[in-house]
Every structure is written in structure tokens, then in C-alpha cells.
Write a structure and sequence with these properties.
33% strand, single chain
Length: 357
């Protein structure tokens, strides 16, 4: 397994390490539920150095990148971020991503670890202005209602007024760091991208503060499921299109991109499954791969499922036949017929991610 620059820090804290897409990452430190609730009420720090990062410089590089993704990078204002995806020719999702517009002639793009080789080929093979910087970049996420206070205490003054889904290059102790107000928890949070050699210093600064604790992949998963954030490779893959994954609003139909023809055909044809959150109303949790039924007839599949500590019941994400993909529809799932109700997005509605500061 590959190791992040913070691997020794995790070992020193007796974290439980697991293999995540070929990376040795902490699944938990003191317990998934404890880490989940601490993120919801205070702030936690996550090592996300396994993610993929790319830089695109120059108008030509940006234009070429735009042909690969469903979003339109030319429409992203400087300082803003936008969600999107890269597809195959059949319209299936190779990976989802976030594009940061750092200046008029520079993009910074963040992807996932799983399909990084395929994504890199797509982004960099025929684009001289593209630079793959994943393996020299560390990423630390600070997430939770008190995260802004911790950023300011650490000397990240740019967090003072940074708006939701905005980003900026900033200088910290003489080093360049990309700071974005983004995250994967539903809470007020920030992501910091830095050179590998700086990661331990940044980690130690935050770890030494009162009120902030390390958290692992387990809490990250329960947090994102409660607010309806999909996971690449689990909630969707190359057999699932953006329309089936609930990404309709992120598709720039007026642009040309790989897979557009197949996606347009599916849109016009209709009849595809819809991506929805689900809840059980009990402590029983749906699980990935569970078939969903209505009166014994298969109508969909659970793509993610867990017990939601903040809502006190089983929660999940699912793809359902369109007829059943409406709030309050009651279905069953799993080998023991767990009751399943289609919910509104997000299930956990008290998240602080969009709070105005």
C-alpha cells in the first residue's frame, strides 16, 4: 500500500489502518461514532492525501480540459469551485471531481484515488499545459462548525471571509498552500493542499489545539452519507451515468465533452433510474448492494448504507426506478426485508457548510 506523508502520525496515535484504493489510511482513531459526532459539533482533521490533483495553465490547456468534463470551466469565476465529472464514451462516470478557478489562466482540479491512472491519461496525454501533482501533494481537511476558528488560530487569515465553494492561494509560514472552503461532511470546513514535506508541520499545529481531533475514513463515510454525498466507485462507476447519479444540474449541455452523445440520448429517451437518499426509521441499516423491492418486485439497489449517528437511524443512498424515487415512498431491502423510505436531500439538515461568515 502507498503511504501518505502523515502515515507515521497515524501510527503514533494507534489508528486502525486499512487499505483504501491502494493507500494505507486510518479508518478510525478513537471510534467512528465519536469522530462523527465531534465533527458535527466541533471540528475534526482528516488526512486526504490520497486524492488526485492536477493543474492546468493557459487558455489552451483549460479549453482542452473542458472537453473532458461535463462542467464548463470557462464559466467558473476566479476564486470559485465547481463540481463535475469525467465520462467514458458511453456516458458512464470515470470519476467525479471539483474544479477550482485560481486565476483567469489557471485551474486546479481534485479527483479521487481509485481511477487516477485513467484520469491522468485523459487529462495529461494530449495537454501540454496540464500537470499531474498528486504524488507531491498532501491534503488535510479541517471540518466542523468551529473549523474557521481553528484556521484563524493557525494563521490562515484567508479563512476570515472565504465563502462556500471558494478557494485561494495563500502563504503560511513562507509556504504556498491552496485553501478552499469545501469538504465532504456537510459541515463548515476547509481543505488545505500543500507540498508533502509540509504536511506534518500543518498536522501538528492543528492537532495541538483544544477542541479539534483526528478522524478517519469511517466517520467521513457516515458524515457524507447523512447529507447525500456520493462516493466514486461505490455509488457510481463507469456503468452509471450522471443522470442516474443525480448530477443533472452539473451538466453543461451547451458544451462538447466525451460521452455527451450517449448522455443526450439517455436524457431524451427517459426511463432511467434516479439517485435518492433513503432512511429506515430504525437502527437497522441498509448496505451497499442490497436489492430494493416493492411488493416483492425489484425496483432498485442500495449503493451506500450505514447507521447515521446524527439522525439516529439507518440511512443510505440508492438508485431507484423513476416511479418509486419520490419522498415518502416505502419499500423493503436486504435479506430480512428492512423497511426503507425514500427521503429528501439531505437527510441530516443541520449541517453548517453553507453558513455565511
Amino acid at each position: 500500500m502507498q503511504k501518505t506523508p502523515l502515515y507515521k502520525k497515524h501510527q503514533s496515535l494507534n489508528a486502525k489502518i486499512v487499505d483504501f484504493n491502494g493507500w494505507a489510511l486510518p479508518v478510525q482513531f478513537d471510534g467512528i461514532v465519536q469522530e462523527h459526532l465531534h465533527t458535527r459539533t466541533a471540528a475534526s482533521m482528516f488526512d486526504c492525501s490520497h486524492m488526485g490533483e492536477y493543474r492546468f495553465k493557459g487558455a489552451d490547456a483549460i479549453e482542452r480540459f473542458g472537453r473532458e468534463v461535463i462542467s464548463d470551466p470557462s464559466k467558473i469565476p476566479v476564486g470559485r469551485c465547481r463540481y463535475g465529472a469525467v465520462l467514458n464514451e458511453s456516458g458512464g462516470i470515470l470519476d467525479d471531481l471539483i474544479t477550482f478557478r485560481m486565476s483567469e489562466d489557471e485551474l486546479y482540479v481534485v479527483t479521487n484515488a481509485g481511477p487516477i491512472e485513467s484520469v491522468t491519461e485523459r487529462f495529461c496525454a494530449d495537454n501540454q499545459g496540464a500537470e499531474h501533482v498528486s504524488y507531491e501533494t498532501a491534503k488535510i481537511d479541517i471540518q466542523g462548525p468551529s473549523s474557521r476558528n481553528h484556521l484563524l488560530s493557525a494563521g490562515f487569515e484567508a479563512a476570515q471571509s472565504l465563502k462556500y465553494f471558494n478557494s485561494v492561494w495563500t502563504t503560511w509560514r513562507g509556504h504556498e498552500i491552496l485553501l478552499s472552503r469545501t469538504g465532504y461532511t456537510g459541515e463548515l470546513g476547509y481543505e488545505l493542499f500543500m507540498a508533502n514535506e509540509l504536511a506534518e508541520e500543518v498536522w501538528d499545529v492543528f492537532h495541538g489545539m483544544d477542541g479539534i481531533l483526528p478522524a478517519g475514513l469511517g466517520a467521513r463515510d457516515t458524515l457524507r452519507t447523512e447529507v447525500g454525498y456520493a462516493l466514486s466507485g461505490q455509488d457510481f462507476d463507469e456503468t452509471v451515468t450522471p443522470l442516474e447519479a443525480g448530477m443533472d444540474s452539473f451538466v453543461a449541455w451547451n458544451t462538447d465533452f466525451v460521452g455527451k452523445g450517449a448522455l443526450e440520448a439517455q436524457r431524451d429517451r427517459g426511463g432511467f433510474q434516479r439517485f435518492v437518499p433513503v432512511r429506515t426509521g430504525s437502527r437497522r441499516a441498509p448496505r451497499h448492494g442490497f436489492e430494493i423491492k416493492s411488493d416483492g418486485e425489484a425496483v432498485g439497489v442500495v449503493t451506500s448504507g450505514t447507521f447515521g449517528p446524527s439522525v439516529g437511524e439507518g440511512v443510505g443512498l440508492a438508485r431507484l426506478d423513476e416511479k418509486y424515487a419520490s419522498p415518502d415512498v416505502v419499500l423493503t431491502t436486504g435479506p430480512k426485508d428492512i423497511r426503507l423510505e425514500v427521503a429528501e436531500t439531505p437527510i441530516y439538515k443541520e449541517g453548517s457548510c453553507r453558513v455565511k461568515i
